[in-house]
Amino acid sequence: MSSSLPTPQEIRDLRMAARLSQVELAQLTGLSRNTVQAAEQGRLTTRTARALGCVLRELQVPSDRLTQVERQLADLTAQVEQLARGAA
Fold first, then answer.
1. Is 42 exposed, middle or buried (0-12, 13-18, 19+ CB in 10 A)?
2. Is 82 part of any domain?
3. For the chain, which terminal residue's Cβ has fewer other Cβ atoms within 10 angstroms, N or C?
4. Where residue 37 sits, what CATH number does that domain have?
5. Domain housing 32
6. What does the alpha-carbon distance between residue 37 and residue 23 come to, in Å, rounded to a whole number?
7. At what angle do helices 33-40 and 22-29 cross, to 10 degrees?
8. Is residue 2 part of a domain?
9. Does 1 map to a domain?
10. One digit per residue, pLDDT tens: the chain, 88 residues?
């Protein structure tokens, strides 16, 4: 992935990885949903595409952390259920 200007597909992939709809991304960035859609279709200025890419890269880290926390929670839930079965 380019460090400065993401491709339309990279913008879409990053948005999807962050688990955001076009509307949610638009709200976070202060852009319209039409602008986000245009970016994903390659019809956008370099400046806006770069800004969207930066925001999405920042959002990707919390999404990765959330996935890790979800896994840890599932593991802990399984351990508690196993302990509960053993105590019964």
1. exposed
2. yes
3. C
4. 1.10.260
5. 8-87
6. 9
7. 110
8. no
9. no
10. 445 677 888 888 888 888 889 998 888 878 889 988 988 898 877 777 777 777 777 766 555 666 777 788 888 888 888 888 887 6
